Automatic annotation (TrEMBL):
HAMAP family: GTPase_HflX. The lineage of its organism: Bacteria, Pseudomonadati, Pseudomonadota, Gammaproteobacteria, Oceanospirillales. This is GTPase HflX. Pfam families: GTP-bdg_M (PF16360), GTP-bdg_N (PF13167), MMR_HSR1 (PF01926). Belongs to the TRAFAC class OBG-HflX-like GTPase superfamily. HflX GTPase family.
């Protein structure tokens, strides 16, 4: 890339240290899953406890010696830490271990780089990688001693390190400009949906909770879904028709994780904006995961960070098949549905989810009878397109007697577009004159 580093391999020794500060404590099982998702083979796991991280190498001298022996015994060329390392710590560890050292942030960035498929996703990942790399450039050029002066080396010009930093800043600036154009396009599409009054639903949740499996089953999409962390990276939008609501735009978003690197949250802000401006968030939760309460808190923290903390939310407890439970709905004291238990893999409970979405998205429904003449065929066709017709009968004069059930504002808008006076069809109470 911009500098040389020790040659890396896929056989890795993992390092997980529990510090007394519980806020910085990571999960070992999740760490192992991250490594597997990145494609590395974990040869061994070094664990331990420590009062606080060592400023120089994160771990103490005893653990450092033990790690050296593990790397030698397993012929591993990569050491992965389940912690965020400072650039100086990473540099010192590579000097001591003579192998590639990767921290938790770098590991997640590597997974994201493998998963990105769209142009936008690749730009976002590259931006996060470059900003992460910018603090670690010095390591690659220390062996060249290019920053020292000397006979024949003094004078104008810049060191190799300064050149790389300049190139890096230029590339970061260029990516920001391109992402700004992508954001503008997304905002324009979002405003178009708002003008058309099409509700939007965003699937959010901890990584590997089953969002993509649920998304594919609901929308007949072909989003990549696998039992691994961050299987989905690029956002996907699909249309979904909901009874009593009509067309809905559903978005599948990137999964969240404990201590998601801030650089990633910033880089993917345009993508996550789909969640921040959604009509409803469907929070998919792995009901069989013993850490589900902790994962719910982590997702809520990220949603707060991107400005989606106040968006209405529907909880979906997925993977009930692993618990031997039947699908069901849960309501609060006011009768509002707040949780759906289902199995996305078995497509069990989808009718309950559709019912819950209809209840949470449908506002101010109206049920009425309309009589339309053959000349009003456009209005009749539009009512059918909006899935508002429950029953239809024709009399001897060719008039259509329609039993209609649909959102009030949709019906009034259709009558207006057809140049029809709502007084001829609806009672004052049905019209909702203050809205007209």
């Amino acid at each position: 890339m911009f500098f040389e580093r020790p040659r890396s391999g896929e056989v890795a020794v993992l390092v997980h240290i529990d510090f007394q500060d519980s806020t910085e404590r990571e999960e070992t099982a999740e760490f192992m899953e991250l490594v597997r998702s990145a494609g590395a083979t974990s040869a061994a796991l070094l664990t331990g406890t420590r009062r606080s991280p060592s400023p120089k190498t994160m771990i103490g001298e005893g653990k450092l010696a033990e790690l050296k022996e593990m790397l030698k015994a397993h012929e591993a060329e990569l050491a992965i830490f389940n912690h965020s390392l400072a650039p100086s710590q990473e540099r010192n560890l590579e000097r001591e271990l003579q192998c590639r050292v990767l921290d938790r942030t770098g590991l997640i960035l590597d997974i994201f780089a493998q998963r990105a498929r769209t142009h936008e996703g690749k730009l976002q990942v590259e931006l996060a990688q470059l900003e992460y790399m910018s603090t670690r450039l010095v390591r690659g050029w220390t062996h060249l001693e290019r920053q020292k002066g000397g006979i024949g080396l003094r004078g104008p010009g810049e060191t190799q390190l300064e050149t790389d930093r300049r190139l890096l800043r230029g590339r970061i600036k260029a990516i920001h400009k391109r992402l700004d154009r992508v954001r503008s396009q997304r905002d324009q599409s979002r405003r178009s949906r708002e003008r058309a009054e099409i509700p939007s639903v965003s699937l959010v949740g901890y990584t590997n909770a089953g969002k993509s499996t649920l998304f594919n089953a609901l929308t007949d999409a072909e989003v990549y879904a696998a039992d691994q962390l961050f299987a989905t990276l690029d956002p996907t939008l699909r249309r979904l028709d909901i009874s009593d609501v009509g067309p809905v735009v559903m978005a599948d978003t990137v999964g969240f994780i404990r201590h998601l690197p801030h650089k990633l949250v910033e880089a993917f802000r345009a993508t996550l904006q789909e969640a921040a401006e959604a009509s409803l968030l469907v929070h998919v939760i792995d009901a069989a995961d013993p850490q589900r309460e902790s994962h719910i808190e982590q997702v809520n923290d990220v949603l707060d960070e991107i400005g989606a903390g106040e968006v209405p939310r529907l909880l979906v407890m997925n993977k009930t098949d692993l618990l031997g439970m039947s699908p069901r709905l849960e309501r609060d004291g006011d009768g509002v549905v707040h949780t759906v238990w289902l199995s996305a893999r078995d497509s069990a409970g989808f009718e309950l989810l559709e019912q819950a979405l209809a209840e949470r998205l449908a506002v101010d429904l109206i049920e009425t009878e309309l009589v339309l003449t053959p000349e009003q065929g456009w209005l009749r066709a539009q009512l059918h397109d909006h899935q508002g017709v429950r029953d239809e009968q024709f009399d001897d004069q060719g008039r259509a007697h329609l039993s209609v059930r649909m959102p009030r504002h949709d019906l009034l808008r259709l009558l207006s577009h057809a140049d029809e006076n709502p007084d001829n069809y609806l009672s004052p109470a049905e019209q909702g004159r203050e809205q007209w």
